[in-house]
Specification:
Number of domains: 2
Mean pLDDT: 86
CATH architecture of the largest domain: 3-Layer(aba) Sandwich
CATH class of the largest domain: Alpha Beta
Radius of gyration: 21 Å
Structural class: alpha/beta
Largest sheet: 9 strands, mixed
Amino acid sequence: MARLWVVGETASDGSVTKLSTEVATLGRSLAEAGGLEVQGIIFGDHAATAATELGRFLPSVTHEAGTWSADRSIVDVAGALSTRTTGDLVLLSASPDGRDVAGALSALTGMGVLVNATAVRWSEDGPVVEQSAFGGRLITESAFSDIGPGGIITVRPNSVAAEPLAAAGTVSAGDGSSGPDLPQVRIVDRVEEAAASASIEDARIIVSGGRGVGGAEGFKLVEALAEALGGAVGASRAAVDSGWIPYAQQIGQTGKIVKPQLYLALGISGAIQHKVGMQTAGSIVAVNRDPDAPIADFADVIVIGDLFEVGQALLDELQARTG
């Protein structure tokens, strides 16, 4: 029986990443629909701990010695996996490391790759991958022309809601088999950006500012609203490019993909590049002076007015309710 592999990824603290749990949930549903065995595999210094976490989402997970990040060589991961994936499907996170593994694994095995999946369904001929093209203006569906050698799919964040199993799966150590002798990657420098006070990928509420905020000073209101709502601060690319807020908080095609229950957009026009990053939010509330701004076409509620007047009134009301 063909097998569907879910390659897990570890975070900097050694835990399994949120995106890996989403990929695992998707892999589980695809394996059930396609009659495949599903197997998780995870590498890294803390792989045993991360594998236990991933086992909450998959019936079987193995952990392997090796380094997930490029400290040693990302292609070592692909090399080890390539010895056992002929004819199988492999699901990975569409993260920087996940893309590296997908490329190396494709080169080693001849598998085709479908990237940045926003949804995947199973058809009679195998997986059908939904992708966003031309900055979100077009949604396409693609499939492997020849599934014989197997296939690789990378999955974008927040495409699937992570759902744990009723009972955790089995976790075991791998057999330590390795792939071909591959060149090593030498790390010459490492830069870690300070994380935002609250993760926008996991936030249930996001308050975002755009060009209309007017400057770094204007983001004080955005931050105050986010704090009052117990949410995180986001931004459009225009605000990030202007240097008003760090890139880590950018939402959109070239930033983060988010799926909060509430998305409050202040002074954001809603260009397609930004829409791609937040269109799956549960509720979208926008404040904008321009009634013809693109965001008016897809927001659930739009308030036409000055964002500072409306935002301050909302902040005053929230503060009054909390005493």
